[in-house]
Design goal:
The protein is built from one helix and 31 strands. It has a four-stranded antiparallel β-sheet, with no helix packed on it. The protein has 354 residues and is mainly beta.
Length: 354
């Protein structure tokens, strides 16, 4: 009887341990970011002009540019003989002589002809002109005329814009911000390095924040906040390894994060608490896109002919990557959809959390 009692107690104890283990280790099943392929199209397919203006999505692959639709139709395609600039609103295909560049709507309708010689640059619905010599630029109006221009004696080495303003960096280490119409707002010299030069810059949608990668030998990333007619440095960080080329800087849509490509990968700064995350990757960042689905971010980088898409969740946490071989590629995020272009193909991937 004593042995049976001990055995019964042992069984009860083991059962209790199993129950406690299951109870204490239980966690509700989480959801994961899902990437579901929807379709792939060939850009050599005959174009069908059926899309509404706000349904046209821009692409550029190799020697071709144009627009496609969410449903997988090629709306238009244009061969690029020399140079091209394209956005969701406008495009321009021009030559190296840069005389009288024509700006077209995404429908193919002529929008305006630029009256001054130079290389056009389009961001969203904004039209800029880099003037011959490489040290000046202009903001153009809807008629092709210049609203404002800015000139310096040294080359432009970084340029970016948003709805609220423009930021430009120069080879002498000067960083300038401008109002949306091109009127000079402020001029700064970030300094801190032995050889001043601005290698990359960006400005937030509100224009309240702007950032740059500055200098050689003691190269650093610098984040500025605008306060009235002045700006102050709210964060900076020196690099352990330095870049010897121009590079990529971008703010998130809500301005809570800023991304930059350094010599070792992608740095991410939280613009609220100034915490830093670093994502190691090889090669040069081509584009960074973000989606509202799970705060996901997609980074397209290139090393030789290998393109890599790095996937982040919650804006700064890496959850995966995939690579492919191509001569040219692009990514574009639109709501819960990610489009990936590769040579002659464009694929649609639906993003969800399941």
């Amino acid at each position: 009887m004593k042995i049976r009692n001990n055995t019964a107690l042992g069984v009860l104890f083991c059962a209790l341990l199993v129950f406690l283990y299951i109870f204490l280790s239980y966690r509700p099943l989480g959801t994961e970011l899902q990437l579901t392929p929807e379709w792939t199209i060939d850009i050599s397919k005959a174009p069908v002009r059926a899309a509404k203006p706000d349904e046209r999505l821009p692409f550029r692959l190799g020697k071709n540019a144009g627009y496609f639709t969410h449903s997988g139709e090629i709306d238009s395609i244009y061969p690029i003989a020399s140079k091209c600039t394209i956005s969701g609103e406008f495009y321009s295909i021009y030559d190296t002589e840069c005389r009288g560049a024509v700006i077209y709507k995404n429908s193919g309708e002529r929008f305006c002809t630029l009256e001054t010689s130079g290389f056009p640059f389009i961001q969203d619905d904004r039209i800029y002109l880099f003037l011959p010599g490489g040290s000046s630029f202009a903001v153009c109006n809807n008629y092709g005329s210049i609203k404002n221009r800015y000139e310096r004696s040294c080359p432009i080495t970084a340029f970016n814009s948003s709805k609220a303003g423009i930021v430009a960096g120069f080879s002498d280490g000067t960083l300038c911000t401008f109002k949306s119409d091109g009127e000079l707002d402020m001029t700064l010299s970030p300094g801190g390095s032995d050889y001043p030069v601005i290698l990359g810059a960006a400005i937030s949608e509100s224009g309240n924040l702007f950032a740059c990668i500055s200098g050689q030998e003691k190269q650093r990333f610098v984040l500025f906040q605008k306060e009235g007619n002045h700006a102050k440095i709210i964060y900076h960080n020196f690099f352990d390894k330095e870049l010897l080329r121009q590079t990529y800087v971008k703010f998130s849509r809500k301005e809570n994060m800023v991304y930059f490509n350094d010599a070792l990968g992608v740095g991410i700064i939280d613009c609220v608490n100034f915490s830093k995350t670093h994502i190691p990757l090889e090669g040069k960042v081509i584009e960074i896109e973000e989606s509202p689905v799970s705060g996901s971010v997609y980074i397209l980088s290139r090393k030789n002919n290998i393109y890599t898409v790095t996937i982040l969740e919650h804006f700064n946490s890496k959850i995966g990557e995939f690579s492919f071989n191509a001569e040219s590629a692009f990514i574009l995020a639109d709501g819960n959809t990610l489009y990936i272009g590769r040579d002659q193909k464009i694929s649609r991937i639906t993003l969800s959390r399941e």
